[in-house]
């Protein structure tokens, strides 16, 4: 039976191989452990195996885990859809937000970020595949949104996040991730982050410039959505 530590080692090996294949520097891609629906103990095991960055989709679940893990120096990333009534808690308890897709949410995060904390790292989520069911701003709306967010005082715009339509076709994966990279390159802003790629397509994402890959299933196994608080 494999352990979380074994799974982390396997994923790191995949990342390293993909970096080499893309002729990118070793360590240029960071691993974000997507820990939604997983208990605090699983995060402790991942921490013991060297992980520090954890991504959560559900605010109440995340806050409960943060309370259980105050003894560990973890870096918390919010990666789920954001409702207006959740922005204060996100601004107060997270280091990164990968899923900002409209200016109203960014403005609230900036206004509600505690003054004693460093600027909140922000990625704009782009709906690169145009799926009606997906969150994210349109590529057309991106330039104006990025410029507006970059000007907010308590945020630091780092780059883009995308979840392309799932496919097993490598050429289709490459095309979607390349489109995200082109969108970022077209913005006249000092950005350094592309948050894209998951368990099934991280190799393609790394080939096309990902700096964070968001990995859940390959680290922690299948998720249980039975009793997940929002």
Automatic annotation (TrEMBL):
Positions bearing N6-(pyridoxal phosphate)lysine: 36
Keyword Heme: no
Alanine racemase N-terminal domain residues: 18-223
CDD domains per UniProt: PLPDE_III_Yggs_like
Pfam families: Ala_racemase_N
Record has Cell cycle as a keyword: no
Ranges that cross the membrane: none
Top-level taxon of the source organism: Bacteria
Keyword annotations of the record: Pyridoxal phosphate
NCBIfam families (UniProt xref): YggS family pyridoxal phosphate-dependent enzyme
Family the UniProt entry places it in: Belongs to the pyridoxal phosphate-binding protein YggS/PROSC family.
Function, as annotated: Pyridoxal 5'-phosphate (PLP)-binding protein, which is involved in PLP homeostasis.
Protein name according to UniProt: Pyridoxal phosphate homeostasis protein
Protein source organism: Pseudomonas agronomica
